[in-house]
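yo

u said u wanted the structure for the complex thing, so here. seqs first:
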Amino acid sequence: MKELDPFVLLAVLQEMLGPLLWLLLAAALLGTAALVALLVRERRVVARRLMWSEAAGVAGGCLALALMVRVASSGFIDVGGPVDWLLIALVFGAGLAGTAVLAYAASGWWAALRRAGS
Amino acid sequence: MRAPQAVRDSALPWRTGAWAGEGWLEVDPSTLRHARYRNVFGVGDVAGVPKGKTAASVKWQVPVAVDHLLADLAGTASPARYDGYTSCPLITRMGRAMLVEFDYRNNLVPSFPGVIAPLEELWTSWVMETMALKPTYISMLRGRA
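structre next:
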């Protein structure tokens, strides 16, 4: 790669994922915004909710890896060098962080809306 | 493999040497400018240069040719040179590949030195080959990459 132009990266990702790219970006943006709004509203981190979100995050990381392996038609038996472990860590980390953020924000807002309704 | 009929029938191909029979354009290997027609450049498969005929080569060649064209229009000279960069993802088995990148002189020119070792069989290189290269080619054809 001559230079990693962000627009080239975006074009390739769009070609790779199609409409799914926009769905994922929207989920990431909305999830982050919902988390920030929730933290501002509650002014604290709820430990129990955080723990469950992190547990869901681990499952999300595993799911991301399973998807990656399926799409790439290969398995972890094919891991060859350090960069392969780095890639696995990145994919797992992205799945973990994304799921944890979404789970924390969703469960927090669910509880808040239920409280407001009752 | 030969150049398209229109090119082979034109005055542009090499007239002697290894590429004369196949009809590839007689261009300078480093500037990609035609040896006899200075306003003609050759990039991609049609260029009669010692390495290339890969999408990676085209990606490296186009900016050089464009820079020379722009310099010609501006009445200046361009220092841009193509060093023969090309890339061959070599699949060594299901799940592993080597991302071998080299230039005219067969020097290894890795894009990610210290991260993706060119002579190592890696799952990462396989993932790039299976997941990223086809979308990259199509993005290039669309003029977006």
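Chain B touches chain A through 29 residues (CB under 8 Å). The first strand of chain B starts at residue 86 and ends at 93.
cya
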